[in-house]
Specification:
Blueprint: H1 3-22, H2 26-37, H3 41-52, H4 57-71, H5 75-85, H6 91-109, H7 115-127, H8 135-146, H9 159-172, H10 180-192, H11 195-205, H12 215-230, H13 236-246, H14 252-269, H15 271-287, H16 289-292, H17 294-309, H18 313-326, H19 333-347
Length: 365
């Protein structure tokens, strides 16, 4: 290290320190960025290495990194070049700021199509235990990698990635939420199911963690599974199992909106089975009224009335008969009959008599 480099480092740290005390370091950081940009890679790293030994030196280096990261035309290329040329050459700086630098890098590209790829590139660092990135960052990277998995693709076609992610999660004791590896496995088993009995066994043993799934992914998840499951119901209790497996508490209004709409559509697809399943859902809904809360109860009841109002008289009678047959041995049958009769009397007088018209089952306005 020559005298010029040492003196420049001292001057820059001193200038940065004074500005830091004043609460605005933009001028000192901008000047340092300009100086580094004017140097060769070797000269720049000599200056950085010198800075790293001084108080506030690593902090100034990190401010330079953030400044360049924010204006990089190719964030991924910039990051990996910086890791190679700077972090790997200055161990003391890397030890102090590498984890934060990765977090800022991921912040820059989160929400872009490159995000999952960027996380997968970082997986090598986690997998090989080259650095201790901490559980929070490692979990974030694993969740990003799991975004590469798809419920619509077979387990076999994603086996290598799934196997790799499972090994890392096990060795690093990382749990992701949602656990996309578990969801892909569930989807694979789901696609192999034949008949209602197998479906019910799969649902009864399912334990899916959906709580942290974002709303867009959750809607896609429901759209994928619910239409396939809805026609496998053969008793009112299965609706409770479906709710337990697929309903996220903070998004239960969304769950019931989609589920009721699908049940209504199924009447048109299969009149006999769809009508029976719809009646069984009403039994489940009234029987578990206290679990839903008043606001959700009113919302779902309003949707059910809207659907029933659009059905013709024959289908309404079929639903009525199926419902009363279903509750014949139930402890709460009097309460269910009371709630149902109130609803039925609202829609029965207005029922359409033409047997070929189903109407528009669900008001999606």
């Amino acid at each position: 290290m020559n005298l010029e480099t040492s003196e420049l480092s001292t001057i820059m740290v001193s200038y940065y320190g004074r500005q830091k005390e004043q609460g605005d370091v933009r001028d000192s950081v901008g000047l340092f960025v300009d100086i580094i940009d004017s140097k060769s890679i070797e000269q720049a790293n000599d200056i950085r290495a010198s800075l790293s030994t001084l108080p506030n030196g690593n902090e100034l280096l990190f401010e330079e990194y953030i400044s360049n990261l924010n204006v990089a035309s190719n964030v991924q290329k910039f990051f990996w070049r910086y890791v190679k040329n700077v972090f790997n050459e200055i161990p003391s700086y890397k030890e102090e700021y590498f984890v934060l630098a990765i977090s800022k890098y991921l912040d820059c590209i989160e929400g872009t199509q490159d995000y999952s790829k960027a996380c997968y590139e970082l997986l090598g660092i986690v997998k090989e235990s080259e650095e201790d990135l901490g559980s929070d960052l490692e979990t974030r990277i694993l969740i990003g990698c799991e975004m590469m998995l798809s419920l619509s693709k077979s387990y076999d076609s994603q086996f290598e990635l799934i196997n790799e992610l499972e090994r890392v999660k096990t060795s690093r004791r990382i749990k992701t939420s949602p656990d996309m590896v578990a969801l892909v496995k569930f989807a694979t088993e789901f696609e192999k199911v034949k008949g209602s009995d197998q479906m019910h066994k799969l649902l009864n043993k399912a334990n899916l963690d959906l709580d942290d799934m974002d709303i867009i992914k959750y809607e896609e998840f429901l759209d994928y599974f619910l239409p396939r499951i809805a026609l496998a119901v053969n008793s009112w209790t299965i609706h409770a199992v479906i709710k337990k497996v697929f309903c996220v508490e903070r998004r239960k209004a969304l769950f019931f909106t989609k589920y009721v709409s699908i049940l209504a559509d199924n009447i048109e697809m299969d009149k006999i089975l769809g009508t029976k399943i719809f009646a069984e859902f009403i039994v489940y809904f009234f029987n578990s009224r206290e679990q839903h809360g008043e606001d959700l109860y009113v919302q779902v009841k309003t949707s059910l009335i809207s659907i029933l109002y659009r059905l013709n008289a024959n289908i309404l009678k079929d639903i009525n008969n199926s419902l009363k047959a279903e509750i014949s041995g139930m402890r709460n049958k009097e309460m269910i009959i009371k709630d149902w009769d109130q609803m039925y009397l609202k829609v029965a007088p207005a029922a359409k008599t033409d047997t070929g018209f189903f109407g528009r089952f669900f008001d999606r306005r």
